[in-house]
């Protein structure tokens, strides 16, 4: 007898879509069959899609800042938001501060994440690859960290070519994946200084300071250096087709490089940062949202498979309050506004609505983009990211026809706004199941704090 049976739904099982029942025992998928007769609990999924729970392999949760304090989004609120949006696994980031060590931060990050409800792993940021900290990488690997994160921009984090090469070499030595934020630090600084000197301080100048060429150049360079070292990389948050083209060219040569994009590059634009007053700050993230005409270019790169993962890059700063977008004052220049937007709960609904409901991609492609491919890259597949016998019973029951207008309340995060406020989507999660436990039903999250598991990768 199964603990739980999901009966009569239309399930995405890897490459096929079939009407079937799913039987769950001990938190895992035990049976996939036309009919499962007996179970302690039965969920009627008639009329619903049954999808693998979303795997969000790029997000920022409760990260500490070098100047002290933490991001507003706690592991508990992030878990709630993720479950509300049909996501059941997060891979977030552990920082390294310049001159700092790794293991102490890693242990502290694990302790914070253990207070949440969602299963999780970490990318280890390397901001200072020359010092003693690198000797701690074997300990990190032993504890299940499967990837390093390199930033080619941001004052506190950016690596020059020598530093990035060191990260690539370390990853190669220890068999780790490298994820890269690709933007040219010096080019952004030059443009930023010129804009500020000319009095151009408003949020919209964020996009002007970091045009696509800045991202394209760094992407090209990151790929070339990775090719030189022979280290696989994934380029994070690709914003437009001209950047993805660099990845496509390398893939055609056989270079192991992957590309990720995010919903913000499919629905937001640089013009959103030109809203009255300080409003534009709500849409500020890096890379910057591009032109509306760029959205179809990103879709075509998704359909070509050049970009095969869609994550949120959730990095929330509230609009109000001393830790938020205005923490340096609303008259401060655009360069003093923290980068990042919240998006944990909106990721699946936006991608489903823009992708599946509007006929740009099919259901199988959708499940691969939001669950299977991120799970593979994060080395969590087939435990996560797929509906298959033996996999964790992480499922989302999806109401494909439900029309919802996005509001901040529906996001259930700790941030006081959503950049997607007022957008109408078709398709919404009705129920989220994590390891066989119903953790969200009709928007109500019921999971116990502390129930999320560490995922060694
Ligand atoms: O603006 C962004 N994306 N903030 C989050 C950190 C990062 O760059 O991924
Ligand atoms: Zn980034
Ligand atoms: Zn970013
Ligand atoms: Zn990020």
UniProtKB/TrEMBL annotation:
Molecular function terms in GO for this entry? dihydropyrimidinase activity
Q: Which UniProt keywords apply?
A: Hydrolase, Metal-binding
What sort of enzyme, by top EC class, is this? hydrolase
EC identifiers of the protein: 3.5.2.2
Q: Which cofactor does it need?
A: Zn(2+)
Query: In what residue span(s) does the PI-PLC Y-box domain sit?
Result: 352-408
Q: Which Pfam families match?
A: Amidohydro_1 (PF01979)
Q: Which InterPro entries match?
A: Amidohydro-rel (IPR006680), Hydantoinase/dihydroPyrase (IPR011778), Metal-dep_hydrolase_composite (IPR011059), Metal_Hydrolase (IPR032466), Metallo-dep_Hydrolases_sf (IPR050378), PLipase_C_Pinositol-sp_Y (IPR001711)
Q: Which family does it belong to?
A: Belongs to the metallo-dependent hydrolases superfamily. Hydantoinase/dihydropyrimidinase family.
User: Cross-referenced NCBIfam families, in alphabetical order?
Assistant: D-hydantoinase
The protein's name is Dihydropyrimidinase
Species the sequence originates in: Muricoccus vinaceus
